[in-house]
What we know:
Shape: globular
Largest sheet: 8 strands, antiparallel
Number of domains: 1
Strand content: 25-35%
Number of helices: 4
Distance between the termini: 82 Å
Order of helices and strands: HHHEEEEHEEEE
Number of strands: 8
Helix content: 10-25%
Strand order of the largest sheet: 1-2-3-4-8-7-6-5
Radius of gyration: 26 Å
Structural class: alpha+beta
Oligomer: single chain
Amino acid sequence: MQKILATLALALTLQACNTVGPRQCTLPPTAVTKPTVSLVDPITIENLLRWPLDGAAGRDKVVAALSRLFEMKPLRASQSSGEGPVRLVDGHVLSFAHVRNLSGDIDIGIDAKSCIDPDWAAAVTGAMLNSVDQDTHGVDRGKQYDVTGNAMALRINTTPVTYRCVTAIHIYPLPTERP
């Protein structure tokens, strides 16, 4: 009986390899032999600042990261929103994310307690201080730092009055010239 079972097991193995004679058989990978999957880039404030400057592919990376972090809810046509707080691997906390797929705009809120130094954020991205720090009504809305790269723009907003912390990151495609 054992000889029959051994023969049957050999026949089934050879059949799985689509052969009738002995040869090297590569069985499907098991949990032990599966190749390791490369880890995705960690979702950090630094990466959320850098990725958009890689162009459309970087913007898509930000959208994918936000979708993994937030429970994005659909709004109007091709828009989605996620409410925080959501803690990143670097310890910083996001308060919200809004993605507008038709325009390509992304807004990311940074929790006030997660104070990110705007000078550091500007250094990471190469952003320059925008000279405007008041709206058209003369109200201080905080400072803005701007940078562009690969047809994408990135704006970093700070807290009003003190300008000590980043409050939001805005990502949007640069306007294209029409022929």
